[in-house]
Design goal:
There is one protein chain. This protein has 735 residues and is α/β, with parallel strands linked by helices. It has helices at 13-38, 41-65, 71-98, 100-109, 114-134, 136-143, 150-174, 177-197, 214-253, 259-281, 287-313, 328-347, 349-359, 364-416, 419-438, 489-505, 521-529, 542-546, 552-555, 571-576, 602-611, 624-634, 667-674, 682-701, and strands spanning 452-458, 461-468, 472-477, 480-481, 511-515, 534-539, 564-568, 582-587, 612-623, 640-645, 650-656, 715-719, 726-730. The chain contains 24 helices and 13 strands. It has a seven-stranded mixed sheet.
Amino acid sequence: MPARTYPLAGLLFIPFFLSGAAALAFEALWVRGLTLILGSTSRSLSCVVTAFLLGHAAGAWLAARRLPPSPKSSLRAYGYAELGAALLGMSAVAWCFHGGDSLVALRLWLPGPSVAGDFLLACVVFGPASAAFGATLPLVARAASGRIRISLLYAVNLFGAALGPLLATWGVARLGATATAAVAALAGVAAAAWALSMTATLPEREAPKPAATPDARSAAAAQLRLGLAIAATSGFLVLSAQVAWVRLFGLLVGDRVFVTAIALSCILFGLGAGGMIANRATQRRSAEQTLTLSFACAVVSLATALVLADPALLSLHPDSPDYVRSAPLVRAAFVLTAVILPAICMGTLFPLALSLIERTAQLRSVGTAVACNTVTGALGALSTAYFLSGRIGTRGILVLHVVLCAFFAVIASRRGAARGGRALIVGVVGGFAALALWKRGPALGVVHPQLRAVVQEDASGIFEAAALPGGRLAIFNTGSRLAGELGRTSTADTQRYLAITSAHFAPRLEQVAVLGMGYGISAGAIARGFGATRVDGVDVLPAVFDSLWRYQGYNDAVHLAPNLHALVMDGRRYLHGQVRQQDAVIVSVHQYRTQGASLATAEFFAQARRALRDDGVLVQYVWGEDAAVVLASAAQSFEEMRALALAKGEAIVVFSARPVRANPQQRGPVSLQLAQTALRTHALFEQRLLQGEAQLRRWRSQPVASLHTDNHPVLEFRRSPSIGTFRVSLSPTGR
């Protein structure tokens, strides 16, 4: 390795660390922002990740084609790329959170079916910033040529990236989305300023290199081909595995709000550690030996995780026969073997590819390697999320990764191990691959297979309908309980009260939207019991509609109602695209702490107001510790409120822009529906309405430090006693 020609070479780690943190912080904010436009978190995540990877590939490829001739000019170009990435990333966040209407108009203008149009929108909004981030590695590699190992720089960048999602999640809760984006932009500007300040320490031109012999050129070409092949393989494996890893975290954590940030940070820390290991390993052994060990260790780790999967996951739910309170060690071992160790093993691959390319002295090919890595990564993520998940499930994806890693381990061992060592490696990886195939088993989930009525898995997650002991029924999605359990009076009654209260106060029931189907009880009562002309049932999970027939004893067989229109989309996206004004909008997502926090923001209430007729009503479930901030946020759009008091400080609140009065034409149907609930009679219903008035006065008298908005949610981290879920609470005092 050539001697260092300037003393500050190691300080390149600092701007590249900041660059990684800024890039992933922006990516987390983009996912949040696009969710407000598209609705579904799963759809938004896949669109942003794909746009980020494809933009990254385009930026790396362009940087490789236009690589500056000297380290000094490369470092200067790197600084400008960081500056551009920071400004473009900040602009994209501002566009999402403050220019939502223009984004919706752009989405409606873009051609193509739903999925294609959403991807195209993400590429238009986030592609330029992603391309600027993609150009940074080829440029910094050229600037540091011969002075710092590129693989080490890449590992440092990954460690910065691991902090990005966590800092973004913390920042949104404390500072707001726009302010968090400004902090990320400042980190990018600092990286740019640091890099530009270092240009004075670099020489204008590199020292001439001696001409390579034909044999050396042939060896370099072989190393380059191997490096590009490893880069492409690494991208597919890592991004395909990431889909499964995020889903596994969702099963264990049981929450879709913070799980992505937690999972990404753990994965990126693992990849960064793998990069550090690869940097050391390549100094002591050949590339083939390092490849063989990496793939073999991944096989052993993933196969072990498949053995631990059921004891770890089925011990989460108290009703499971496998429930064990002392199972945290098993769960920790499962996370270690299913996610952390495989991430470290796969994290060695791309740094190894960079090391091989660096040895060829063809630094222009670094950009090509980045492009290959990110393009195959996008292919791996999309194919796994939208094709493999629905066909072989998360457990099958893990088995597939075991088989692929075993195959690559055997191929690499043909050149990286002696005959005896090769036989040992083939035996070990073959045995563990056979173990993985034997453990492919049923779908992963938190509910014991004997208690499951149905398990479906697709791009939206792992959906479980469970027949629990005592005649109770429950539905889960990727570990989160979507609603309270049927068989407990409060759950069915609460969903029916939503429909009853809507019918009692809505002047007419020609057009009604139910956002969040749950067990279908609210939609069934509106469609069958009150005879609405058209009921749009909206849910982000197609499996919810597929399972409605299982609850027909509770939901009036809503799946057979001719006036029900089932729409698979998020509630906000539904309201964005509505041309018919609604008589009533029912928000039946009454666990918005974990599933539907975006359906309780000031922006949502404004959107609902625009979708309603002048005398239409919005009906929503709220509870004590969250009610004050929800009501204050709703008051920005609705002047009138009425409430039906429930138990334990809960209420169903009716919002309207005009005075709210009872509809006498619905008195008979309301009484019939009340007879199926604990209230029984209309007199008790009226009594609860009076109690609700007093409850509203108490809630509205509480001080509210900050409204709940898309840009600045008031959040606090909590932990639920059941299933160990992280929960989100809207705090009326902004604590």
